[in-house]
Prior knowledge:
The longest helix has 54 residues, at 482-535. The chain starts with a strand and ends with a strand. The chain is α+β, with helices and mostly antiparallel strands. Strands 1, 2, 3, 4, 5, 6, 7 and 12 form an 8-stranded antiparallel beta sheet that branches. The chain has 20 helices and 30 strands. It folds into 5 domains: 3-120, Beta-Lactamase, CATH 3.30.450.20; 128-318, Beta-Lactamase; 335-438 and 479-507, PHY domain (Beta-Lactamase, 2-Layer Sandwich), CATH 3.30.450; 536-590; 591-750, Heat Shock Protein 90 (2-Layer Sandwich), CATH 3.30.565. It is 39% helix and 24% strand. Helix 6 (148-163) runs antiparallel to helix 9, helix 9 (293-333) runs parallel beside helix 14 and helix 14 packs antiparallel against helix 16 (559-587). A hairpin with a 5-residue loop joins strand 29 and strand 30. In the N-terminal section; belongs to the phytochrome family. One of its GO terms (molecular function) is photoreceptor activity. Residues 147-304 form the Phytochrome chromophore attachment site domain. Keywords: Chromophore, Kinase, Phosphoprotein, Photoreceptor protein, Receptor, Sensory transduction, Transferase. It catalyses: ATP + protein L-histidine = ADP + protein N-phospho-L-histidine.
Amino acid sequence: MKIKDIVNRDIVNLTNCEQEPIHIPGSIQPHGFLLGLKQDSLLIDYCSANTAQYLTLFHTELLGKGFDTVFGDEARQLLLDYINNNQMLSSFLLPLTLAGVDFLCTVHKSNDIYVVEAEPAVIQAKAANEVYDQTSQFLGYMQDTHTLKQLCQLVANGTREITGYDRVMVYRFDADYNGEVFAEACREDLEPFLGLHYPHTDIPPQARDLYMSNLLRLITDIDYTPVPIYTIDDAEHKNLDLSLAILRSTSPMHVQYLHNMGVGASLTISLIYKKKLWGLIACHHYSPKNLSPEVRLAAQLQGHFITSQIDVRQASEEYELSRKIKLALDRVNNYTLNQTEVLNNLVNSQDLTALCNASGVSILFNGTIYKSGHTAADEDILKLASWLAVYSNHTSFSTNKLIDFLPDAKNLCRDTSGIIYHSLEIDSDNCIIWYRPETITEVNWAGDPAKSIIKDAKGLSPRNSFALWKEVVECTSKPWLQPELDTAAACAYNLQRQINLLIITQEEVKYRKLSELLSQTNSELENINWISTHDLQEPLRKIQLIASRILSKDEQISVNAQDAIQRMKASANRMQTLLIDILKYTRLKHTDEVVEIVNLNHILSEVKIDMAETINEKSAEIIVDALPEIKGMPFLLRQLFSNLIANSIKYSSPDTKPVIKITPNHVPVNFKTNDTTLYNVIYVADNGMGFDQQYAETIFNIFTRLHSSPDYRGSGVGLALCKKIMQNHNGHISASSALGTGTVISLYFPV
């Protein structure tokens, strides 16, 4: 049987330090030993090299053997019960007697391997009841704290009392995983780290990932010699994931980092909040120190206390803030924007800035800026509103460091470093913006964060200087808290709703005035039309009468004079016809005739009787097929067909007998492809002179005449009148023709 170790000997350098495979070091710390058992058979497939120190059995004697073969059936059964009862959690310890020695073990599964980590069971420096009493006392103290910072300080004190470490820190991360010592308990002779900041590079991403999966990390002696793990060499690239292992060996970079800080031993407890790494409880000792598994669990309980209380403490801290800004929001929501001037009163009220603790606010509405407090200049507000509308797609945006988004606008970002923006209207720059000025702060770092990794003649190493390094932060405002952001959003929503109501009201007033003006204008036009169609007909009749009398006298009148009088009389006749047609056209919209079921055959019979003289004069032939019944107004329908028949007779060819066919389409159709309404279609076809199809639309416009010859009298109103009648019936009219081939008028009546 061939045996090999799985120690990871890859060299860490500047290009791979953030990808260092710290979960597969292939070695452990020496304060316990490790066995890796195959899941199906419990054969020992992995074994640390220090088993002889604890069991007087070398790893070469263990590898490939069954667990029961080496340690007996009783130990095997205890292990199986532990596994089968789902007790493979760090809070459940498994006591086992192996080779006659008592151990406390933790067990976890790594892929298809059960990893057993064993540490000697020793007499506790602290009795179990003492640890319990300290924990119970801590729970009592917890009831007396109200803020998160007070709670974290209590945890730091309690953890130090339970574990005996020289320094215990509660370490909190920001959004970028830069850390701050949020609370601390340490020996009186040690320099405090409270308030110091550490760059995110001190804890690389892969280390943060391990803190998420393994909540407790122990180093008993920084100067330990890593113990290699051996395995049976029966597969290429064989390895063991130690992400959940308590004994896992530490990255050389991290060991050097702690060396540079003068630390001799450490314990780290992860603080997980909302499935993210919120912070750490970091315990440092300045000489080697080990903790029993029981004490570790008691210390880990402190971390559970913090994470279980974060919501409660933050809610308590935010409650008073929320209460104050809600009162301000209620007062703001009481404003009713019944006129634009109210925006001035709203902006100048202190409530609008108080609801999110801003130093200033501006409202941009229809190009006018309403503002109060500490804001940007008007020109900058217009530019900022335009940029924010595009950047946020007319939604919302907030930051306490505007310069990160507008690096070329340092003066603007210094005056208004923090903003909350809400658009008030889609497709416009109307918006509300709250402002906060620059708050120059001094951040104390534990060493220069830019020098977190150092490369020298000896190679790559973590920084070795933790001397106080101060950074002045500019162009940054006080951060916006979530209640402030929520309240600003609620205010913007209410303001947007009120502005929309204001806009609708303004539009309603404008349209009402326009409607009144239009009604007045229409009334005046109707008066003018009445005058033109009634009062003007009287002088026209006199002109016609006088012309007729002059022409009927026997006195000798010159030919030129007779011609002039004839033209005058013809002009008067045409004007009278035009006035009568205009009166008919304008009366269409005032018709009060009731819609009823109309038999078109009866309508056509009446029309033929009324037009008998005209039809006989031209010897016209009117052919009418069986027509359907439709919904319509009889009077208007008689006028419709009278106009169409008269038009066909008027524009018939001089040498051809007029023939007019009125036929239905027997199947209802759509007027257009995108029109789902069905129509009954009536065709009025003649054999007249026709017209060019390019004029098929314009012939229905009022006063449009295609034939200007004096032989064809008309006002150009007839077909416009027909179109109006069809519109009154919710129908359509169209024409199809060609010169010399006659015309087909199509009438579409809704089914």
